Here is the input.
Amino acid sequence: MIYIANWKMYLTYQASLDFYNTNQSNLERLVALHRATLVICPSILALAPLAARMKESSIKLGAQISSPHASGSYTGQVDAHSLVQAGCSYALVNHNEVRTLFCNPDSLIIGQIIQLANRNITPIICVGESADEYQEGRSLNALTATLNILSEAFSQVNVSYLLAYEPTWAIGTNCTPTAQELSLVKQHITSVIQVLDIPSPMGYLYGGSVTPSTISMLSKTNLFDGYLIGRASIDFQTLEKIVSWSKEAV
Ligand code: PGA
Here is the structure.
């Protein structure tokens, strides 16, 4: 199983390093015990110093943001090449919180995927409907629309990617879709991927209020190869419960 710890902006630069220093051996033990892949997505500033500390580690690093451009006059952006140099091997794409804040146009998602692929960084591509789309029964249409954007990117570049189903209304809310809804969504995504003739992801993830209380139901669906964990990933004991319990339920 693969676990993406999205630290968002919960931990400062120093708190990120402290978390790793304090929990380094526990994290290693957890990953080894469950033969898990753990990708930590910290604050962008913490990437390089964490990478230096993780030289001998099996834990991977991911970026929360990346530029759709290779280089140039793009104030405030971070290029994929620098991310590799900072020790990054994964990057989130189309996360709802970024999309909402920056009103991402489709070209941004396509550009990011292309730049990441060019640097062999694995994109963790988030897809998921908004609360309104969910209420109005348009979840599957929303997913199709995003997969159409992805197909444009995949027509330009070969890339191995992870696909994370993250319904916007489930992020940070303690609500999750039901097992039935998840099953319907997974079926829909796999069939649209086939129809569009785009490469299948290396793994399907679920994200949105993954906690020790929700992991048992999520795991029992047997639908996912891993989880994208926000708030619950900044506390080692909580993360440990999620990893241990999800493993048990499979
Ligand atoms: P959450 O966040 O686990 O805090 O709901 C998930 C995410 O946004 O990646």
Notes: The mean pLDDT is 95. The beta strands are 2-6, 37-41, 60-63, 90-93, 122-127, 162-165, 203-207, 226-229. The two ends are 10 Å apart (CA to CA).
